[in-house]
Write a structure and sequence with these properties.
Blueprint: E1 2-8, H1 12-23, E2 28-31, E3 45-46, E4 56-57, H2 58-71, E5 75-77, E6 81-85, E7 91-95, E8 100-108, E9 112-114, H3 120-124, E10 130-131, H4 134-137, E11 145-149, H5 153-163, E12 168-172, H6 182-189, E13 194-197, E14 200-206, E15 213-218, E16 224-227, E17 231-234, E18 238-240, E19 271-273, H7 285-316
Parallel strand pairs: 1-2, 1-8, 2-5, 8-19, 10-17, 11-12, 11-17, 12-13
Antiparallel strand pairs: 3-4, 6-7, 7-8, 9-18, 14-15, 15-16
Helix pairs in contact: 1-2, 1-7, 5-6
Amino acid sequence: MIYDVAIIGSGPAGYTAAIYAARAGMNLVVIAGQEIGGQLTKTSEVENYPGYPEGVLGPVMMEDFRKQAERFGAQMIYDVVEKVELRSHPKQLWLSGGDVITAEAVIIATGSSPKWLGLEAEQRLYGAGVSACAVCDGFFYKGQPVAVVGGGDTACEEALYLSKLCSEVHLLVRRDQMRASKIMQERVKSTPNIHIHWHTITVDILGDKRVEGVRVRHVLTGEERDIHVRGFFVAIGHQPNTDIFRGQIDLDAHGYIITRAKSTHTNIEGVFAAGDVQDPVYRQAVTAAGSGCMAALDAERWLAERRYVLQGSSRSNTP
């Protein structure tokens, strides 16, 4: 069987692409991937997505997305894509369970994963004070002290955003200087409630059920101390989930898929990318969903144009 569209990934981008593609009458399959529903399934309350005035639990919202996609006929496969051949036509996807999916078009919506420090408490308290997104979760710590780990532009942006909401922001920087641009550093240093801790690494995150503090160590002296915080934001970067596409899809220096301006087209005809896998800037559920819509529309138009050309070619070759 050859599908019209195969969608790799089941976060906001993948599910939204499935909704639009299914409503357009396309025969499609969604390969859910290792993290069914994407990063939002690890998030507690989501309050910044339109249509949920009282907020919604991340896993519940993703379940709503899935049900809506299935309502219009999207087929779900709960497996992981291990290998792809995208340059041929039709495209082929090899799954870990042994099946091979064949499709005319492919939408890549595999997302990105935050980089972590490797502490046990990061995963245990994720969604209970530990976060990798200030815009997503900063509001929950309004008027409370928080910590941000990192020394690049992302860490500075997170700290500045949180400084408008939180009583104190403790920026933990491993070295004696930041990697961030000069203007970002100056903004951070001139913000009164941002406290920069130089030569500082995180030893542990304190708290049983919620974050209650962070234990840090001074790199030069070895001295350890505890800082009272209620939120702990890791801002050391994200890793786009693009390893299986290397050598076929054009990626930028950080591994994000490069798409044509104002579209979701990749360098390969019939292959589209949506969501965080091609967005190193915004990384929000609503922007991912929006690009999922774009990818489905781009795929629909590409398929229609391709079939029109093939039909015209067939007619012209008829005796």
